[in-house]
Structures are given as C-alpha cells and as structure tokens.
Amino acid sequence: MKKLTTADLTAEEKLRLICSDGFWHTPDLGGKLPRVSVSDGPTGLRKENRKDNGEVETVRAVAYPAIQSLANTWSRDCARSMGEALAGDCIENDVDILLAPGVNIKRNVLNGRNFEYFSEDPYLAGTLAREYIEGLQSCGIGACLKHYYANNLEYNRLEQSSEVDERTLREIYLKPFQIACEAKPVSAMCAYNRINGVYASENKKGFRILREEFGFDGAIYSDWEAVRDRTAAAKAGLDIEFPFNQKNYEKLVADYHAGLISDEELDACAGRVLDLVYRCEEMGKQRKKAVSREKRHEVAQRIAEESIVLLKNDGVLPLAKGTSVAVSGEYAAPGRCGLVAGGGSSMVQWSGAFFDLPALLRERLDSEVKYEPAFWTKGIASTWQKPHKAFLEAAESDVAVVCAGTGSDIEYEGGDRENMRLPAVQENLILEIAHRNPNTVVVLFAGSALDVSAWEDSVAAIVWAGFCGEGGGEALADILTGKVNPSGKLSETFPVCLESTPSYGTFNDACVSRYEEGLDVGYRYYDTYHVEVAYPFGHGLSYSEFVYSDLKLFCGEGGVTVRFNVENISKQDGKEISQVYIRPMQSFVYRPEKELKGYAKTLVSAGGSVGVEIALAADAFAYYSTATDGWRTDDGIYEILIGASSRDIRLTAKVKVENGKASLLS
C-alpha cells in the first residue's frame, strides 16, 4: 500500500481522519490507510470486542501489579520488563497502541486514580515511565503517555480548572512528561480538566511545550469525550478525537468551510495522524513473538515481589516453618479482581485464577493455617461475617495475619476517596485480632496511602501488598515466609492523617482547584516543614541490614558522579534501594529542603559489599526561572545526600557550582 501524504487526501478525508473511527480505531478512509487499534492499560490489557449480537466482551489478560506498585519497586528493569510483557498481550490481541502509562503526580492523597500513577516525585515517575515505554515499544507496540497534564483529581474532572503557577508546572507536573518523552512514545493523551482556565484538549501552550521543548514527535489524542470544541482543539494541536463524535465532526466540517480552521492547521493534525499510522505499521513488522502467558505471569510475580513494602516489623516476620497461622479478611482469597485492583478503564479481567493466600502459606510453612473471611465488602462499606470464629482462631494460633484493603469500590476512575481510612469494620477487626494475638501482621491491599494511625501501634508488622496483580499472592506468601526478601520502598509518603497533607485546606470547589502549596508536594513539603509522617517517601524495610560508607564524588563537564559502598551485614541476600537527593545550601529563590535526583536498586549478598555509582546530570541542580523563562542553576554550595529514604540520610558531601559546572570543595 502506497504511503500517503496530506497532499494525497481531500479536505473531507483529512477532516475525517482526525476524528477517529468508533471507540478504538483510527479511520482507514475506505481502505486507503492501515487502521490503528488502541486499547486500555496500564497494568494489563483491557480490550473490548463486540459480539455479533451487539454485546461487548472484555478480553481476559494477564493482570500485572498496579503502576503504584510498579513504582514501589524503584526498578528500571521491572518497569522495562512490564512494558515488554504487556506488549505480548497486545500482540496476541491485535492491539497497536496501549493507552499507557500515566505519569500524573500524586498531589492529593484522595485522588481516586492514584493507583494508576507512579509517584509524588517527578523524577521517579518520569524515569520509570521512560523504561516502561522503551520496553513496550521495543517489542513493536506503541505507548500513549497520559494524562497531559495537571490531572490530579477525579472530582468534576470534565470541567475543573487546575490553577498552577508556571514554575510549579515545570518542576513538578510537566517534568515527568519531559523525562518520559526521552523514550519517544508514539502518542500522548490529553487530560479532561482545564489548566489555568483552558481545557487540556485546547491548550496550545501545553502542546507547544510537549512538541518543541520536550521533543515529542508523535500524535496527540484526546481522552475519551474530552473534546468540547473540535475546531478549537485542532487549532491548538490536538490530532485525533476519541471516540468518534458525530456532532463534533459535523461542526468541524462546518467550521472548515466557514474558514474557521485553515488548511495549514488541518494538514498539521492530519499529517501527524498519517505519521502515527505508518509508524505503527513499521513497528508491527518488527514485532517480537509474544512471550508465553506462563512467562508473563512470572514477570507479574517478580514485579510483585519487588514491589511489596515491609512498612513495619517487630521481629514476627519472616514466618518460620511450623508456625501456626490464623488468616482473616476476604482480601486473602479474593473471589473477584475488584477487591485487589482499582476500578475504571484500567480494570483487567484476569485470565488466571485468583490467589489463595492461606493455601499458599500452608504449602510453604507445612503447618496449620486457618482462614476465616471475617467480613465482606460491598461498595465503600464492610460488613461482619462470623467475626467470633476469626477471633478464636487468632487466639489459638502463633501468628495472626489480617488482610485488609480498599479495591475498585473505593479507588476508581471518575471519583475520589472520601477519606484515607480503612472501612470501620476492617479497622475494628485489626484491633480485635491484635488484642487477642500480639503477633498480628496486617497486609494491606490498596492503591494509595492509607491512614494507619488507629491501629498501627497495636500490631507487630505491616506489609503493603498494594494492588499486586495475579502473581501477588505467590509473591506475598514468599515474602511472609522469607523465601523472598522484601525490597520495595514507598514511591509516595504515607502521612499521619489527611489533615497533615500539603493540599489539604487549599481552595477547591466544583470549578477550580488551586495548587496553593506550589512546589511543596509530597516529601518536599513534609521534609521542608518537618511535618510528622507515618512512613516517609522511599521507606521500606528488609530482612537484611545495610550499611553505607565511603562516599566519593567525581565532578566533570556533564555533572557529578556519586560513588559509595553498600554493605549487607546480615545473613540473607537482599536488595537495597539507594536514593540521591540534592539540597541547595543557599538560593536566590525558594527551594524545597531536598529533591530526588538519582537512585539505584542493588543486590547485595549476605556479608558482602557492592559499590554503587549514580550519575547526576548538570541539570540536577537547576530550577525553573520564571524571570528568564527557562532552567537556571545558581552558583553556590549544594549538599548531596545519600539515603535509604528521604528521612534516613546515611552519607553527605558538598560540591561547589559555578557557571553551571560542579567542582569539589577544596
């Protein structure tokens, strides 16, 4: 088939081309063009097939851990592997582009879609998204970077305006998109909301930044039904509207004939759609054979293993062989994926069986493991179910494991959480079980930070399983029993309560959300203002103990290379996530206390030591100057902090920066 250009198309064909075909395809213009198929992600393929009788069926696919869980791995390898595995699901189902990943910042802890996003930190979000995209596209499947941009609440997302100052936009909310664009995603998706009063689908300035400054060379399309005025959106640079909207299309045609959109503007959008079509066609020719479903399940399990975070451990974990265990909470053996996943367009219909944690523990412990659901959940409420039996089992067992959480009835696209607490019945169950057994372990299945203050001090251990996917049960059982050493760390701060979060109390109504906290998002706020937190950004325990030493800095034209040693002084191999933060010692503008600029996940054998090297680019010291409309690095002294979390700094050193170049202090 001959490759067409805009010169080969009539105006009517170009107008049709930029308005999509149905819900999931680009138009083929009567057979002139290949059709591109898109489907939802990001943690498993969600493709809809329409049957002959008109019914819509969602295909079953491998369910991977949620993006929030993926981020807790702090592993570039895991992110890339997840992209590669997802490509296999897409190849088997004739999907050209996966609508993923989302890199929106977790500004508000109640955002119902936080489980779909990486982090409160733009560097962590952007670098992991970059690997995810490269993994996906290396196998011939296109990525879609979303939701561009400042989409940080679900509340009235179709109309609400995110009002953000320029510097905050650049450093926090646009930065992950900028980093992810280094992977050259074939497409990007605009958000629903307005940004400073202008709809994301019509935000010409935002599209200009994406293309001219971030180097994005793909097609931009709307989130589904995000277009209010197709002509205004096209003039701004939105290339494709999804899904096809007859009314919008007819108005676009009328506006074109009325001279309200020029041929140059139409050609720009249509040309980028043509580029997308042919780019996907070329990628399709180079697709690798899809890995087997079994192998993809192994990827899902490995990511779950590296994502699970040990928040607290008073010594009860790992469970020894022969330990009798009482398991309670329906999340331990979910009968539906909605219990251990978020709701909305990312909801995957699992192709595999749901896990059974009690059975998995019996296999590994070779001991008695009793199970009583104790409650069942529907909507946002939980209801008691034979609690006395659960209490009895807990009292007579060596260890009690309570599995609690949220799920798709509480965390979902289109709505926000009402609070940070677990349902009251679940909190009460934890307290009642802990009262009867001091060796109580709480396992949390959720996609966003929870308020654990009501019961944290009453239990011996807390394990954050997150929304861990179909391999999560096996991963969790291996971690609880010590077969796998936990290595996940938090990609978002767990605040003490909702009232202590930086966005709490900022102006928010049906029309406007003001980002009054500015740069002070997540740990930038908590650490700058010394606000107490439940668990800090980057926190995660291990069955190993790590010691940091011998920090050395090497300065060059391109920035600073940081080298140090991590020693494992325990008897178990383990992986440690080392984090590099930068703190300006003085500044001409406000700077947060510290900012993440590098990280590494390293396997350290028992009794062994590993040298870690992390490169900091010159722009690691920069901030966005609204006075000069660009990135700026002030001369001065900067402290480089090496930590096991944002609040567990192990090593420090200082460099001097002059004229954008760093040097060692003499």
Account of the 3D structure:
With 666 residues, this protein is α/β, with parallel strands linked by helices. The chain has 16 helices and 33 strands. A hairpin with a 4-residue loop joins β29 and β30.
Note the main attributes of this structure.
26% helix
Shape call: globular
Query: Oligomeric state of the chains?
Result: single chain
- Helical percentage: 25-40%
Instruction: Let me know the number of strands.
Output: 33
The N- and C-terminal alpha carbons lie at a distance of: 66 Å
Structural class: alpha/beta
Which spans have pLDDT < 50 for at least 5 consecutive residues?
A: none
- Strand-residue proportion: 25-35%
Instruction: Specify Rg, calculated over alpha carbons.
Output: 25 Å
Outline of the structure:
The chain is of the alpha/beta class and 666 residues long. The strands form ten sheets. The chain has a six-stranded mixed sheet with strand order 12-20-19-18-13-15, sandwiched between helices. It has a five-stranded parallel sheet with strand order 1-5-6-8-11. It has a five-stranded antiparallel sheet with strand order 27-26-31-32-33, with no helix packed on it. The chain starts with 10 loop residues before the first helix and ends with a strand.
Helix-strand blueprint:
Blueprint: H1 11-17, E1 38-40, E2 48-50, E3 56-58, E4 60-61, H2 67-72, H3 76-92, E5 97-99, H4 122-138, E6 142-148, E7 161-163, H5 166-173, H6 175-180, E8 187-190, E9 194-195, E10 198-199, H7 204-213, E11 219-221, H8 230-236, H9 246-257, H10 263-285, H11 293-307, E12 309-313, E13 325-328, E14 349-350, H12 357-365, E15 369-372, E16 374-378, E17 381-385, H13 387-396, E18 399-405, H14 424-436, E19 440-445, E20 461-464, H15 472-480, E21 494-495, E22 512-514, H16 523-528, E23 533-535, E24 546-556, E25 559-568, E26 574-584, E27 595-604, E28 609-617, E29 623-625, E30 630-632, E31 636-645, E32 648-658, E33 661-664
Parallel strand pairs: 1-5, 4-14, 5-6, 6-8, 7-9, 7-22, 8-11, 13-15, 13-18, 18-19, 19-20
Antiparallel strand pairs: 2-3, 9-10, 12-20, 16-17, 21-23, 24-25, 25-28, 26-27, 26-31, 29-30, 31-32, 32-33
